[in-house]
Design goal:
Blueprint: E1 10-15, E2 27-32, E3 38-40, H1 52-59, H2 61-72, H3 84-97
Antiparallel strand pairs: 1-2, 2-3
Helix pairs in contact: 2-3
Length: about 100
């Protein structure tokens, strides 16, 4: 299992790492982990800056990973058996997340 940055993750406004341009606001979004460490620093290139919807999805990654691991670990939930294709999808996702699946 690969070691991921601890969640929850969140987006914070941060300074861009480049020479200041008086015509450009030197602020962007940093993705930080639970320890406040940068996972993805602010980027000056607007084409590489995730949209608000993508930022929300990316920030939810640790919780989604927890959910996928939980689902992949069970064959039955109390009186309910999850669809086998859903459990298999969760297991395949975990392989990809841990670097053992296809790209």
């Amino acid at each position: 299992m690969s070691k991921h940055s601890p969640g929850p993750w969140k987006w914070e406004r941060g300074e861009l790492t480049r020479d200041a341009d008086p015509d450009v606001e030197d602020v962007g979004y940093d993705l930080v982990d639970a320890n406040g460490d940068d996972i993805l620093p602010a980027n000056i290139d607007d084409e590489l800056t995730p949209s608000e919807a993508d930022r929300s999805l990316i920030a939810a990654a640790p919780e989604m990973l927890q959910c996928v691991r939980y689902l992949a670990s069970f064959d039955r939930f109390d009186n309910w058996t999850p669809p086998s294709d859903l459990v298999e999808l969760a297991k395949e996702l975990l392989k990809r997340i841990d670097g053992h699946g296809h790209e």
